[in-house]
């Protein structure tokens, strides 16, 4: 009988979870976009920063750099050399102790031979290779030294081999030699185009226990990549030693390889790996710290881990052209930072993927664009943040997501007619369908166009709304641009959702003025040009009002500077600083035209400038509008509240 146990799923993100909700991510991107970032930069900043429930790339990057410092502090790279010297000194001491009581000339000759040994450990080991030890303990210590070197040499090439060969016999070393020969043969067959996956599988069946890494290589390419990375790390480990240490250790390695009978086989393997992966760093050094001496294999592992962490640092930093989350190796993240970091990386990828799949962004990685859906979301978010302002959140000033084209319901209904946009009276519509016999007991209700009734509503007057936003360079210099952009998006969202019958136009102006389409508001940026052409902006706003002459006119101006440019007869912009009398006169002429249209101008002044204040006071005197000097950080609240108060009076 089969038995099953069920528990909480703990192997990463829930595979049955609903699609990731990216609305909060869109809002986070919006904050960067409000500050002038393009969509691609805003997305990259979001991925670096993360969200409330997902760690970003910067957090992972900090963890990687902490990990690198931990690896660096493991110890020194000359541990094998230090241990080899200690074993050699022990063997020599044991041999001298055995020779000292012997009064024979042979003992004295042996002592003289030991006294003449070179200071270089490798040279001393070579000299002693044919020495006949008097002391059995000394012979055992010397063999322990040579066994250590054989295992360390192999461990620098095949991670874990040092431990695997502990207490090994001649048959184990013979099997290692056979593995290296088989590996070389397989690489040469691959060079000739004769290698197959079946050959690799047979190799792993025979020698897979000598490659204990997780996950295990699945093909020759993965095995070569693993071995080449370790071989390159071994080269960099040697390069990190002092010239004296390097020469001494290289001599010990050469002697160990010769004693093992694998010198030529290992040399062939090194050449094959290097030719297949010349892109790896085979020569650079690493800085290691710490008190403990590391064996050659452990030192190679540390250097290899540092190289992997350096690659992961580069991938997470995303500081190169065309960088993306696909460049981050998930296995490298798992090895360095654990499963939780892999889950966070998967969630970040989900954010980037769902932004596209849910229709918020489009385009290539380097030319990302916001969709109309994203622009609407950013406008709604800007409006919510504006309403969250304590000054804006006054009675009657809240957002109403249920608002439609019509005013308050009167309580009366009438049959629906083609073209009606009044709300549907669902209860009366269903009652009509049932009374007509459009359903059977327990069956579906079948409806006919004649069944529909709509709720009559009060008439709501429409308004023609113009928001004129200064795009000049001074807005960026004074750090006013983000607030102005948020204000434009919030007002546009408010008008299109709560007052959809209104006609809203946003106009940006610097040396020239232009209408800003809703899709372009989010990616709008200040313009590094000279000129504040309010005259041109008022001209465009006037045309908008003329197209909607039966609408209530509402004109709002956001600026931080007096007019310094105007259109000439040939259509070019004339700039002058200080403002020329011609610019002032042309601008005031447009103000007078606004006055004749019955449109009052409310100016939101974002700078303390005596000349600017005199100008806007003159505008208010001639037009009858108001001058508002808001706190720049709460500009949106002032503008929205002003619009709502005027809109209520108009309605």
Automatic annotation (TrEMBL):
<dbReference type="InterPro" id="IPR036465">
    <property type="entry name" value="vWFA_dom_sf"/>
</dbReference>
<protein>
    <recommendedName>
        <fullName>VWFA domain-containing protein</fullName>
    </recommendedName>
</protein>
<feature type="region of interest" description="Disordered">
    <location>
        <begin position="389"/>
        <end position="420"/>
    </location>
</feature>
<dbReference type="InterPro" id="IPR002035">
    <property type="entry name" value="VWF_A"/>
</dbReference>
<feature type="domain" description="VWFA">
    <location>
        <begin position="462"/>
        <end position="645"/>
    </location>
</feature>
